[in-house]
Every structure is written in C-alpha cells, then in structure tokens.
Amino acid sequence: MKKLNVLCSIVLVSFLVVTISVPAWGARIKIGVIGPMKYVQGKGHWNGAKMARDEINAKGGIKVGDEMMKIKLVKADSNEILNVTDAANAMERLITRSKVDFVIGGFRTEAVLAMQDIAMENKMIFIGVGAATNELCDRVGRDYDTYKYWFRGSPFNSSLLAKTAFVQVGTVAAILQKNLNIPKIKIAVVGEKAMWVEGMIRACKVFLPKMGMEVVGIWRPSPVATDVTAELSAIQRSGAHIIFTIFSSSVGIPFARQAGELKIPAVLTGINVEAQKDGFWEATQGMGNYLMTMNTYARGVESNELTKAFVDGYVAKYGETPTYTSDTYSAIVNTLAPVIEEAGTLDADKIVAILENRVYKSTSGTIKYMKDAKGNHLHELTWGPGYLTSLAVQWQDGELKAFWPNNWVAAKGAPPITYKGMVPYKIPPWMIEKYKK
Amino acid sequence: MNLVIDIVISGLISGSVYALLAIGFSLIFGVARIVNIAHTAFYMVAAYCIYYVSLKMGLHPVWGMLLAIVLVSLLGMLCYQLFINPIREHEGAVLIATIALAIAFQEIVSIKFTGTYLSVPSLIKGYFTILGVKVFYQQLLTFCAAVLVMAVLWVFLMRTRLGLAIRSTAQDREVANLMGINEARVAMFVMGISVGLAAFAGAVVVPLTVLEPHMWMPPLIMMMAVVVLGGLGSLKGSFTGAYIMGFAQALVVFLAPMGAYLKGSVALSIMIVVLLIRPEGLFGVAFEEER
User: Fold this and answer.
1) Residues A179-199, buried b or exposed e (16+ Cβ, 10 A)?
2) Interchain CB contact of B214 with A (< 8 Å)
C-alpha cells in the first residue's frame, strides 16, 4: 500500500512538472480580442478575428522558428461604450491573467487611450482596430520607446478621415450643383460630442468654405441623443443643401431616420458608423434611404485582390457585410502572421522592428506606416491612392452601394482611380422636387 | 418669429414625453413613498416588448403596445410584491432594490437582444407642417396622449372609490389603514398604474427613439429632475416641470446649436436654480398640504 502511494505521488508530481514546465502545451499564439462585445462594433472585432483564426489554424498555424503554432483567441468585453474603466480592467486582465501574446481591437478613443497605456507598460503589441484619434499615433512619435508597441490597424486617423470625407462631400456637392443648378452649396455640420470629432469640426470650419461651400451652422448633439427633431428643424430653417454628419454612436440612427421621415430637403453625407452596418436599414425603418457615409467595405466592391475573398467569406460565414472593426481579420492574417513568421519569434521588440518598416496588402488596401516630418515612426496608416482610401457608400433601396472612388483624380496629373463595383450616386426625390424647378 | 414657433413646438413635444414618465414616477412616490429607480427600466421593457411583438412575431404594433402595457403593469405589481413590499419600511433599501431591479432588467434585455440598436415602426407614419415646422404624427400622438393620460388620471383619482383610497393613503397612510383601507394593496395597485404609465410612455415614445439596453438611463435622470423641480409627489408639479425642462432643452438647441449636447445639463441647471430659490420644488408646498 505504501509503495502504491509513493507511485501515485511520483506520477502526480511528474504530471505537474510536465504541465508547468511546458506552457506551450500544444504551442499556441494567444491573441486577445478586446472590444464592446455586446455591441455591433465588438461583434465585428470578434467575428473578424474568428475568421482569421479558423483560416490560419486550418492551414496548420503560423510558423514560428521551426514550430507550427496555432492561434488561440481570448475574448475580452471592454464595455467601453459605457465605461472606460471597464475597458482598462479588461486590458489588464488580458495581459496579466490570460497572458496573451498580442492584443487587437478597441473602439472608443477615450477607452483606447487608457488601454494603450496599459498595453505599452507591459510591452504588449496592440493593434488598434476602431479608434481614429491622431493622438494614439502621435504618442508613438513623441515617446517611441514607450509607445512603439502600438500600431493602427483601422481606420486611418481623424485628420485623414476628415480629408477623405471632404473629398467625398465635394463629389456629392458637384453632383448636386450639376443636376439641381444650385450656384453655391450651403452645408450644415452635425458632429456628435466626442473627442474624435473635435479635430474634424475645426477642419470643417477651415476647409469647407475653401471648397466653395457656405457653412450655415454647426450642431453638436449628444452621441446618445434619441430625438433630434429640434436640430433638424433648425437645419431645415438654415437652408442647407448638404448635412455633413460626423457620427460613430447611436445618434446616427435617429438622425437618419427622422431626417428621412421628415424629408428634410438636404442630402446626408459624411461619416455615420451606424449606417455602415446591414442592420441600419431595419433600424431606421427604411428611412435612411439615400444616406451617404464613408465606409471600408461594401458587397461587390473590390479595393484590391484580397477584398473579394474576405467580404464574400465574411458574408457567407456571418450573413452580414463586414465593417471596419472586422479588420481584426486583416490585423491577424495580413499584419501579424507574416511578421511573426519572418521574425521567427513572438518577441515584441523584434516584431515591431520588422512590422514598422513593412509595406503590405490588407483587405482594404495597401498598408505603409507613416513617419513624421522628422522621420520618427508613428505607426500611422498612409492614406491616398495606392494605399488606403476607403469608400463612399449610399443606401439605395435597402442596399449599400459604393459610388466613390469612381474616376477620382487625387492630384493634378495623377491617374484616375476607380474601384470595381461602383454605381452612380442618387439624389433623393424630395431634393429634386424642391430644387429642380 | 419662426424660431419662436420652432422652440414652442419642440418644447411641447419633448415636455410631453417627460410628463408621461414623470407622472407615473411621482404617483408611486406620492402614495407609497417609493423612489422607483426602475421606473424607466419598465419603460425600456415595454419598448422591447413592442419590438418583439411587432417585428419578431409580425403582429400589428398596436397589439404590441396593448400587450406591453398589460404585461409590464403585471410585472410591476409582481416586482412590488416580491422585492419592494417586504422591505418597504426601509426607504434606503427600497431605493437600492429598485436600482438592482433596473440593472437586472437591463442585463436580461442585453442577453436576449444584445446591444444592437433597434427600432419599431411608427403607429402613424408621416408628418404634418404647422406654421412651417414639420411635426411627426407620432409626436402629436405623444403630446395628445400626455394630456389625455393626465385628464384620465385626474378623473380616476377624483371620481372613483379606488382614487379616493389612493388619495387617502397619500394623505396619511396610518389613518387610511385605520379606516379599513388595505394600504399595502392600494400601494400595489398604484405600482401597477405607475408602471403601466411608464409602459404607456414606452408605447407612444418608442417609435421615435432607438432601442438599446441602456435606454432607460438618460430619461431617468431627466425624469427625476422633472419630479424634483415640480415638487416630489405632486402630479401637477411633474406636469409643469416636464414642460419647463422640454422648453429649456429646445431653447438650447435653437439658440446655441454648437452646445446642443448641453441641453440636458442646462435643463438640470435650471432645476438647481429653482431649488435654490424654492427648495421644496414648484408645487412642493401644495403637496405637503395635501399630505
């Protein structure tokens, strides 16, 4: 009996020793996916990452040195839309308890800034897929040693978002002027009260008049406002032809719905994140028709040769069009996986050194990380023809159609750019009725 | 002139929504001294009920609204019996229990419907133009409903036996008990009516808003401000306070568009100013006399 006990003890101790000393039990790369998981944005984060994991694991994993390592995802609900502290705690848990190797995701700027600090303290590579504020990458330029583990995955920064939105609104303005004989376009700017919007509002004041448009007013509703009829009445009163929206929160839904239902004689342009989702049509009861927003993906539209396979695969798997937070797919498949293979290690410093100098294709364009004027790394996405441009999409009778870039000439003498799958922009009938007399 | 019309119409409409919510909240506080933080959570449950019946079951939204009012009223009475009545003598505990209830509802809805933004179709689609201002028929319905509910509630309280019992209980709970009124039962009925009013508010307001599990929080703050401004427990005060808040918000949006997001803060500041001048609220004295 005594011998049996000794034998059992030896077996138990051996098992424990083996378990503890071989943490790579089945050798996996742990990637933390952080986002507001109860919301569509977080759902996009998670779905994109799952798709990437399944694809890579089906091929046997990622080659790290001589070993093939499969991906294990760790889901973290940041609850960041409601509570920034929850987001910071979720990041802390991912790093200290789940002991992930990389983190991808994040959505709300205020929360991502907090999460970024925690990740950087722990020298953890964090690829942001959702927040747009410039500050996230400016920090890399200012304090490279601390913030070099941060990379922007999607979308490009607020300034570039504004630049793109201005190009797109210019396109719409030209269409209105041509078709409705409006000599000078009046534009109302409506931006939710949020940090990422501030820079864009300042840019609107400067650039829209330079583009030949008259800014008739700037409205700043709460991001969670549910009734914007007062704002819409005031906008209608201002005589605006275009409403330039800057929304990433729920206010985008009542604004579009009420504007459509009241048939406000002005077209909706700009950025409305809620309108980028398939559920928008139902959420607005079809009143969001003719709304235009900047977007990353649309069914049938190809930014490059990688787009179609991703969009079609995503639609087949989840029954909906991917949004920009689904770029967690690209963050794993196009960003992390090749760099890990090249580095042959999971060492963050070695991966950063390779990644920041790499130029590669993602599902929405070509990625090249920018440097500032002094040549410092920013880990910021390059915008423009040949790199990332985004799309301008419009809701047309229940379907999200892209109409830009279509013969877009980015600079004098540059070749025109057209992505596959573009359709013409449609002016709402009530606008035509009012102005085409 | 046009600006004034805009402000008046916008103020009347948002004031009506607050009035519908605040009256129910005020009623249960006036009668049973229950500060029901879950009041707007019942409004949220009603909204989701309407969504489920009209969009998932495919029935006409009117059925959803009727079902929501009945079910939510019963739910309110059940919650009162199970969670509030046993601890009613401890006002602090009641307050915490209702907060817990609200969060429980929020989480249940969150699990069932996720955080996706949803909406329901309007009962009456379209809009009409009054003095150059476009107004949804649904908004007109909300305004009329608020006035009608107030009138019905007044008739109910003043002309029925149950109304008499409710008023007696509100005046003095112990004496009402000695007079043979089952005060606990009256409180339960009032809870049902109060929550039913929240459900009714949900029914008429929900086509104008966005459904999400936290939709109960913003109106809660405004509703409590309305009730405090009007005088705790005073129905007349709630009604008046609601329109003051509604007009304050409209003024901000139209006169300071860049500060439209401050409309809630400005309304709350008005409440603070009024309370500094008149700590019992606008109709607080009348309310004290009634009790």
Assistant:
1) ebebeebbbbbbbbbbebbeb
2) yes
Two tokens, residue B168: 């007696």
The per-residue pLDDT string of chain A (437 residues; one tens digit each, 9 = 90 and over) reads: 566 566 556 666 665 555 544 444 568 999 999 999 988 899 999 999 999 999 999 999 999 999 999 999 999 999 998 889 999 999 999 999 999 999 999 999 889 999 999 999 999 999 999 998 899 999 999 999 999 999 999 999 988 999 999 999 999 999 999 999 999 999 999 999 888 788 889 999 999 999 999 999 999 988 888 888 888 988 998 999 999 999 988 899 999 999 999 999 999 999 999 999 998 999 999 999 999 999 999 999 999 999 999 999 999 999 999 999 999 999 999 999 999 999 999 999 999 999 999 999 999 999 999 999 999 999 999 999 889 999 999 999 999 999 999 999 988 888 899 999 999 999 999 999 998 76
B113: nearest CA partner in chain A? A38
Closest CA of chain A from B115, distance in Å? 5
- Identify the H or E element spanning A168: helix A158-180
Of all residues in chain A, the one with the smallest CA distance to B4 is A234
Q: Which residues of B touch A82 (CB under 8 A)?
A: 214
**Residue numbers in B near A38 (CB within 8 A):** 110, 114-115, 213
> How far is the alpha carbon of B3 from chain A, nearest alpha carbon, in Å?
8
Residue A102: Cβ-neighbour burial (10 angstroms; 0-12, 13-18, 19+): buried
CA distance A42 to A36: 4
H-helix segments, A331-428: 337-343, 348-355
CA distance A281 to chain B (A): 10
- Count CB pairs under 8 A between chains A and B: 113
Over its C-alpha atoms, chain A yields an Rg (Å, rounded) of 24
Kindly list the residues from chain A whose CB atom is less than 8 angstroms away from the CB atom of residue B14.
Answer: 227, 230
Contact assessment for residue B173 and residue B183, using Cβ atoms and an 8 Å cutoff: yes
Q: A-contacting residues of B 26-65, CB under 8 Å?
A: none
Q: Strand, coil or helix: what is A298?
A: coil
ipTM > 0.90 for the complex:
no
Look at A237 and B2 and tell me if their CB atoms are within 8 Å. Answer: yes
Chain B residues whose beta carbon lies within 8 Å of the beta carbon of residue A217: 257
Which residues in B lie closer than 8 A to residue A282 (C-beta atoms)?
118-119
Measured CA to CA, the distance from residue A417 to residue A285 in angstroms comes to 34
What are the C-alpha distances in Å from B186 to residues A51, A203, B95, B227?
A: 57, 60, 20, 22
